[in-house]
Amino acid sequence: MTDSVPGAFMRAELFSQPETWARAADMRDEQKLLPAAGTRVAVVGCGTSWFIAQSYAALRETSGLGITDAYAASEAFLDRDYDAVVALTRSGTTSEVLELAEQIKGRIPVIGVIGDPTSPLVDLVDEAVLMPFADEQSVVQTRFATTALTLFRASLGLDGDVARSITDASAVLAATDDAALAEAEQYTFLGRNWTIGLAHEAALKMRESSQSWTESYPSMDYRHGPIAIAAPGRITWQFGVAPEGLADQVQATGGRFVQHDVDPLADLVRLHRVALERAVAKGLDPDLPRNLTRSVVLDA
Hints:
CATH topology of the largest domain: Rossmann fold
Keywords: Repeat
Protein name: SIS domain-containing protein
InterPro entries: GlmS/AgaS_SIS, GlmS/FrlB_SIS, SIS_dom, SIS_dom_sf
Number of domains: 2
Number of strands: 9
């Protein structure tokens, strides 16, 4: 494999996800470094990491383990008596995350979940959960984000869900019947509770990799205006269980409603492959998407 093949890194990385998820699920010592039950937690990240933070926060709260808020690192309100901050970043070099960690150092314990063990964030945090095996060469993230969420799910005791996600992801990657999903004019992604973060992440992945028109919303809010965009040739993609009647309402517009009976994280893997194939078909290289770099590092 060489980087002269468009999307070669993204393809290899997205197909490795069942393996990296299984490895994250076995990181029991590292999972113990994450906030204990009953603590009040803020989870921060940028871009993809922010959306994964949203999913983790929803899962942690609904599991009854404590108040958990998710913030874009540039917009975090950390004066609310948090017991800990979880900072999620693949590169460990994102400017906003580094600045935030420096600002609260010594005041609020920071737990970093980081892909690059040589990054400057490692020395700033109080505890570092390192996942170099999930780091990536492609600019467009796939496996680091989903592997981090698998680590979070396992840490919350959701072992059955994690096991199903690995099995379902393997089946999704072996399937050959998703080509038509790459041919829509427009995509809207929907989720509920923890899958809202997945919907936002799916929309970002499709935009980054293939320069496509995408939107994302909480499923119940979709009918409060955004459904106006549904039409023939467009896809509304639900992650997880849809609200009753939503599929019929979308189909009545002439649009296509997409929902798969798999673990929602495995369905995100399906979206990764659809995004890759759509990008390559358009002559784009998702390993080097337009206007993007692996990490956003702002000038001082």
